[in-house]
MFS transporter
Amino acid sequence: MSAHHPNGGPLTPTGTIASSADRRRVAIATVVGTTVEWYDYFIYASAAGLVFAQLYFEPAGPGLGTILSFLTVGISFLFRPLGAFLAGHFGDRFGRRIVLVVTLILMGAATVLIGLLPTYAQIGAAAPILLIVLRILQGVSAGGEWGGAVLMAVEHAPRDRRGLYGAMPQIGVPIGLLLASAMLAIMNAVFPGDAFLEWGWRIPFLFSIVLIVVGYWVRRRVEESPVFTEIAERKERTSAPVVRLFARFAPLVVLAALVFAGNNAVGYMTTGGYVQNYATNPDGPVGLDRGAVLWAVTASSVTWLVSTFIAGWLSDVLGRRTTYIIGWVAQGAALFALFPLVNTGSAALLALGLILLTIGLGFTYGPQSAWYSEMFPASVRFSGVSISYAIGAILGGAFAPTIAQWLQQTTGSSTSVTWYLVGMTAVGLVATLLLRDRKGINLRPTAEAEQSEGIYAWER
């Protein structure tokens, strides 16, 4: 007897639903929801590079205050695995949709509260402590968000278009960066100088209330993933999916995490606020206007969006692994051009450097949803995808801005930062080469045996 989706439509042989209307609804919901989540996340990271050192860590002085500000960005990554473990456990047991709604609300609430948080000058040491607590809540939410959005998109997609549909939650990330940078740039123009420091920076955080309402409404209208629906109908839900994941697929989790680490470390040069701080620091080698830098980051987020979408589509043609390899080469080449362009002191050349970088970033990000979903068996897929992503974020972007800041201050040169990022790119490339491309593999729970074999490049 064939399995059915809750809306009554039959499942295809790959565990997807035939209705194109349902697929469009899922695609829109994953883009909107992921955009809201990452807007909130990036607003914090950008503010950490621009204002938090002055408002919350001023007693530490400008140099150490900046490092402490970036550390709060990284601390949240340490709690992403907690969010991923919780989301993976409940997502594999109770479904993808409920996790997406809960993570959206948690992220939005933390963001709004940051926008209302008093500064160090107002309440003393309690201010940075509360800031860190709210950032941790953002980390827990981010750890659970991505896996659910990815599986909703890919598990609804046709077999030959998983890369394209999987790119939908991926482009929500650059859209979130675009909105975050644009909002801060607008606030910087409307409230220049001290007005921006006093309360202009808070408005983008408070604006999250509107985005939460929109994201919640959109996500509530999406049907549950057809693959999970079939798992539930067959009563094959795993009671402890995380335990089973590490018992059988620990090397896969590590390699998948390293793939993402190579992308994430480089991406967090802008999404983590490092480039914004480096380029605007009046005591640094560049000293550009804050507004010009924010608009340059906004422009580069557009090319990141486009390259991510193209890479997702191209991975359906060339394969996930090949598309990734192209991306690693492009990313590595762009890194050698980035800081020479930034150090010219030209806002236009800064934008060019970031635009070149985002091409490689998009190609090492666009195929990720489809590739990760095709790596893990159905019964542990949510756990595997979420936890690999969270661990990769810790190894990659968590402390990349802090490491870059320390390297630059210690050596007095951006060259050391370049080599650090090239090294992370090489790690991602090697991990990619050790994994097999499984484009088009059957995702349904009935194909669990097939999904558990032929994962690594050395297997024949």
In short: The radius of gyration is 21 Å. Residues 45 and 73 are 6 Å apart (CA to CA). The domain at 20-451 is CATH 1.20.1250.20 (Growth Hormone; Chain: A;). The chain has one domain: 20-451.
